[in-house]
Amino acid sequence: MGDDMTATPWWQDAVIYQVYIQSFADGDADGIGDIAGLRSRVGYLSALGIDAIWITPWYRSPLHDAGYDVSDYRAIHPRYGTLSEARELIRECHAAGLRVILDIVPNHTSSAHPSFVEALRASPGSPARSWYHFRAGRDGGDSPPNDWLSVFGGSAWTRVQDEDEWYLHLFDASQPDLNWDSQEVRAEFEDILRFWFDLGVDGFRIDVATALMKAPGLPDLGYPDGAFLADLTRPNHPHRDRDEVHEIYRSWRKLADSYDPPRMFVAEAWVDDADRLSRYVRPDELNTTLNLFYLKSAWSPASMRTAIDSSIAATASVGAPTTWSLSNHDVERVVTRYGRADTRRIPGVSGPELGPVDERLGRRRARAAALLTLALPGSPYIYQGDELGLADAQIPPAARQDPIWIRSGGRRWGRDGARVPLPWTTDGGSYGFGDDGAWLPQPAGWGSHAVEAQDGDDTSFLELYRQALRLRRTHPALGGTNAVTWHDAPRDDVLLFTRSPGFGCVVNFGPVPAPIPLDGQVLLASDGADFDGLLAPFGAVWLDLDHATARTRHEEPGAR
Ligand code: GLC
Predict the structure, then answer these.
(1) Is the CB–ligand 1 distance for residue 330 below 6 Å?
(2) Which end of the chain has the least Cβ crowding within 10 Å, N or C?
(3) What CA–CA distance (Å, rounded) separates 123 from 110?
(4) 147: number of CA atoms within 13 Å, CB side?
(5) At a CB cut-off of 8 Å and minimum separation 6, what does 104 contact?
(6) Could you give the domains of the chain?
(7) Is 177 in the pocket of ligand 1 (CB under 6 A)?
(8) pLDDT recorded at residue 548
């Protein structure tokens, strides 16, 4: 790649675009996204102005959880293509200046993985079973070994047919948890990492990075009768954020650092305590962690500012950069969430239970949020389709595929609404996603959000993202990892910060126009409408403070 690899490590402020491969672009017209489709859109991605892509699991898998149930970590699922196509894709991305991050799923394999198939065949107590968590059931084998619950709902144990033993799965029954006390499991995963690093992959997102180690003896959590969903929030949790997990990541970091250039890791770590979260990114551990404080925050000035400050404080305390994301494939899209009266992300609930959605409002807020996010120091993540302003789609019950929907017997909607194939063209059988048809139904009118519809339209979401990403590359204050300086705003519903040299970002969370309390030239506004020199309702602006305009200054900001 063209840039100087010895300068600041690229991952410290990289813009990372999440490719949900089955819904990105379909190259072979079977209705499912694939590597061929992705390769055909590398130009789109590099023109967008991102630095790297993170590709969700593309490995061989029975696809009970969209590929997070891997049956061969060294093979590409045939529906996505072949290993040689993967190699070509990596080469083409590198040639276009894009890094490639894959998703590694170390907490569990698929139940179709040869090691689990062998473990099932082997007898209780045999070495083959030591790769997983097999235990004798209680009540003579009739009840699960403990009271743990699956993150997707229901017991975290499934009984082996014709036996008293059960196996542990913190997710779906098709995703048995690996036993990370096993040295063989550890060696196997380091070998998998090497396999992909040798192929040129630049890093990994670590799926459920906090869950690998379990407390000795697998003690009960003491759930009340009738509990259905795993509670992940308790201190000293027996299957979350155990201290022993860090040893694994120290070893992985050594492995990644042995490459030239060094490879990187980003942890998926749903940890609510900032100090506990920071442990994952200590200097000898993982490079970055996804930022779930920011992703969960309500769209309000106080909540966003707290999320920003606590995220920066947590990672800065160990010298790591912060990351930012507004959505991903596991949560509602930002337009949908921000279109509600309550804009927080409420775990375990989705769909209409959360109240009506005003998508127009959600889009205005999401545009402002895009400018806020891309102005922050560190590394922002963009979930595919967020740059088009897509909202969650309503998936008819018969078409839903998420194991959350299935395991809950239809009580929880699951995540399919955020995973609908992208619209590339305004019409056509699948709006240019492929030739015809898409594995999840695209709603009527999907084409109005298509890349084709937005390309070249200065008022579009896509052009807002493109312009913001272009500026982020060229403005000396943007990118990087230096701090933000907050300033007093004229009103409680306005947030205002500057970054040096000469950059300001002002966000109006309220429904009425607000004065822009800084002298500067508007570089970019989330809302192009003219509000008489005022900041649009639900809008944000970027300002070049070194080039003040003749615009009247409304109020002097006082640095806090
Ligand atoms: C992570 C993934 C999610 C998956 C789960 C189990 O949270 O992001 O999609 O269902 O892990 O692997």
Answers:
(1) yes
(2) C
(3) 20
(4) 11
(5) 73, 189, 192, 193, 204, 205, 206, 207
(6) 114-168 (3.90.400.10), 462-544 (2.60.40.1180)
(7) no
(8) 66
C-beta neighbour count of 8 within 10 angstroms: 12
The pLDDT score that the predictor gives to residue 338 is 97
Q: Which of 18, 111, 207, 327 to mutate to test the pocket of ligand 1 (most atoms within 8 A of CB)?
A: 207
pLDDT for residue 482: 85
Residue length of the chain: 560
The amino acid at 363: R
Distance 70 CA to ligand 1 centre (A): 12
* Minimal-distance CA residue to ligand 1 atom 3: 330
> pLDDT of 105-140, one tens digit each?
999 999 999 999 999 999 999 999 999 999 999 999
Cα dihedral: 301, 304, 310, 315 (round 10):
-140
- pLDDT at 528 (0 to 100): 87
Task: Look at ligand 1, atom 7, and give the residue with the nearest C-alpha.
Answer: 208
The pLDDT score that the predictor gives to residue 549 is: 55
Cα 268 to averaged position of ligand 1 atoms, centre (Å): 9
- Cα(73) to centroid(ligand 1), Å: 16
pLDDT value of residue 552: 38
Picking from 68, 70, 104, the residue whose alpha carbon sits closest to that of residue 196 is 104
DSSP class per residue in 15-71 = -EEEE-GGGT--SSSSSS--HHHHHHTHHHHHHHT-SEEEEPP-EE---TTTT-S-S
Residue 320: both structure tokens together:
């790591």
C-alpha span between 245 and 213 (Å, rounded): 6
Ligand 1 pocket test, pick from 63, 71, 110, 208 with the greatest ligand atom count within 8 Å of Cβ, gives 208
> Which ligand 1 atom is at minimum distance from the Cα of 415?
9
- Out of 20, 68, 69, give the residue to mutate to test ligand 1, the one with the largest number of ligand atoms within 8 Å of its CB: 68
As a whole number, mean pLDDT of residues 142-164 equals 97
- Cα dist. 341→92, 262, 512 in Å? 44, 45, 17
- The secondary structure element, H or E, covering residue 267 is strand 264-267
User: In which residue are the tokens 């930012």 written?
Assistant: 324
